[in-house]
Amino acid sequence: MLSTALDSSIINAAITQYWRVSVVELTTSTQSDVVELARAGSIQAGHVLAAEYQSAGRGRLARNFEAPKSTALLFSFYIEPQRSRDEWGWLPLLAGTSVAQVLSKYQAQVKWPNDILIKEKKVSGLIAEATDKGVVIGVGINVGMHTSELPVPTATSLLIEGERELTRNQLIAQFLEKFKENYTHWDQGSDEIAHAYQVLSATIGREVRVEYPDGRVEIALAKAIGNSGELILDNGSHVQAGDIVHLR
């Protein structure tokens, strides 16, 4: 069931008309494909591209994302927020919250900014890129991977966590509808997603080591999330980008 082929007709029948999902067997990266279309003005908000396999999948901080064919749910989608561009930093956190909510049966949590953890192991990651008019968000969820297929020992999959019945068609439909619900409220001015994120956060209240892209390292207590989605530490630092390591 977990590796049942993606089928755009099944997915589109299960979601609202805001979304338009297409599926490809192979691409370099769904994120690169959708970003290119968005920058060319060739798509509208609600466009979704899913792939059975990516030959050069992309993750946060210019990392690669690899998964054997049909073992992961890999897709990117385009939206055009109406809220101030200064607030778009919340969108990847909103997407991460939506993934965690869909995976609530596993007590999934969000590690700042948007990694999804089950029992402290990563099951999903996201990437977000702004274009002239909107944002492209890419999502990868480890669905049917066996232990030997995991990219790192600190990862997990829904299969490993005991899932047997859920299909990727069902999972992407559930995510898109949950994201749309959260996103619509947020885009209309509601900030209730901040509370939902904090409830699901595996980071807030913990001592963390921050590894910045420029090589700096900082250890402090993760205290809160700022108005732009940044992580606020108890020493006053506002972390915009970096790797977070939970220390306790």
Automatic annotation (TrEMBL):
InterPro entries named among the record's database cross-references: aa-tRNA-synth_II/BPL/LPL (IPR045864), Biotin_CoA_COase_ligase (IPR004408), BPL_LPL_catalytic (IPR004143)
Domain BPL/LPL catalytic positions: 20-187
A GO term, aspect molecular function: biotin--[biotin carboxyl-carrier protein] ligase activity
Keywords of the record: Ligase
CDD domains: BPL (cd16442)
Gene Ontology CC terms, in alphabetical order: cytoplasm
NCBIfam families per the UniProt record, alphabetical: birA_ligase
UniProt name for this protein: Unannotated protein
Natural source organism: freshwater metagenome
